[in-house]
Amino acid sequence: MLHAITVPAYEDALRALSAQLDKALAWGAENNVGELQLLAARLAPDMFPLPTQIRFSCGQALQAVSRLGVAGAPDFADDADSFAAMQAQIAQTLAFLSAIEPASLGEDGARPIEFSLPNGMIFDLSAAAYVRDWALPQFYFHIVAAYAVMRHMGVPLGKADYASYMMQHLRPGTAPTA
């Protein structure tokens, strides 16, 4: 159960994020928006720039599976300094996630999970509550922030780019033709 509601979601969103980065880099080249401009972009002065949002997206997925019992997750201590480096962080995260055996996350959603924040706050939750109330929301926050930074810069992304993984579930013959 815990694997089914975490790892596939992380993989789908990270693959979509990778495609968004590809689109952003191509758009930047076509529109004279340099890679450094995109790397420095942020939504507000007190928010993190694009490379940090990418690092945090990967990190949230890796922290979650680690807290649920998987060892050996990569650690990205620094922000990427290029689009290639951001793509490498995503690729490394996807490779790690794809190697996780479902049983390694356990099936006991009631087992206790404890985690602390750098400010000293400590949380005690069940594994299921941790996934529902912290792990997935934190992951999606940074996925959406990265998407929003690219949109803010003018990259022509839409909902189809954000949720591109949904196409695997599309009923044949129901896609719009125009």
End-to-end distance: 39 Å
Order of helices and strands: HHHHEEHH
Helix percentage range? 55-70%
- Please outline the major beta sheet: 2 strands, antiparallel
- State the CATH class: Mainly Alpha
For the largest sheet, list the strands in their spatial order: 1-2
Whole-number tally of structural domains: 1
Count of DSSP-assigned helices:
6
Q: How many beta-strand segments?
A: 2
Structural class: mainly alpha
Give the C-alpha Rg: 17 Å
* CATH architecture descriptor name: Up-down Bundle
Question: CATH fold name, please?
Answer: Four Helix Bundle (Hemerythrin (Met), subunit A)
Shape: globular
Q: What is the average per-residue confidence, as pLDDT, rounded to a whole number?
A: 95
CATH superfamily: dinb family like domain
Enumerate the spans where pLDDT stays under 50 for 5 or more consecutive residues: none
Short description:
By secondary structure, the chain is mainly α.
Question: Please, could you describe this protein's structure?
Answer:
The protein is mainly alpha-helical and 178 residues long. The chain has one domain (2-99, 114-166): Up-down Bundle (Four Helix Bundle (Hemerythrin (Met), subunit A)), CATH 1.20.120.450. It has helices at 2-30, 35-40, 50-67, 83-98, 127-152, 159-162; strands spanning 112-116, 122-126. A two-stranded antiparallel ribbon has the order 1-2. A hairpin with a 5-residue loop joins strand 1 (112-116) and strand 2. The mean pLDDT is 95.
Please describe the structure with a list of short key phrases separated by commas or semicolons.
globular; 56% helix; Four Helix Bundle (Hemerythrin (Met), subunit A); 178 residues; 6 helices; mainly alpha; two-stranded antiparallel sheet
